[in-house]
Write a structure and sequence with these properties.
- The protein is an alpha+beta fold.
- It has 2 helices and 3 strands, in the order E-H-E-H-E.
- The chain has one domain: Glutaredoxin, CATH 3.40.30.10.
- Helix 1 links the parallel strand 1 and strand 2.
- The radius of gyration is 13 Å and the shape is flat.
- One of its GO terms (molecular function) is protein-disulfide reductase [NAD(P)H] activity.
- This is Thioredoxin domain-containing protein.
- Belongs to the thioredoxin family.
Amino acid sequence: PEDFVVFYSSRDEDGRLWCPDCRAVEDLVQRTFARADGPAALIVWVGQKPAWKSPSNAFRAQPWNVGSVPTVIRV
């Protein structure tokens, strides 16, 4: 199986992903990567919205260069 990194918004104080696009695909991502015979994924939480929007967010820089969440990268 292939390996992936999934970049998601962090969860807010209510336990919800703050990013609506991340919420929209959360079930699909969980189903895709939960199968024992399927691809493997490392989930990376990019931070709360203010931290994510900061140009100095570590995930916006090399080596990842993530420009939006959710982002899935094959490694």
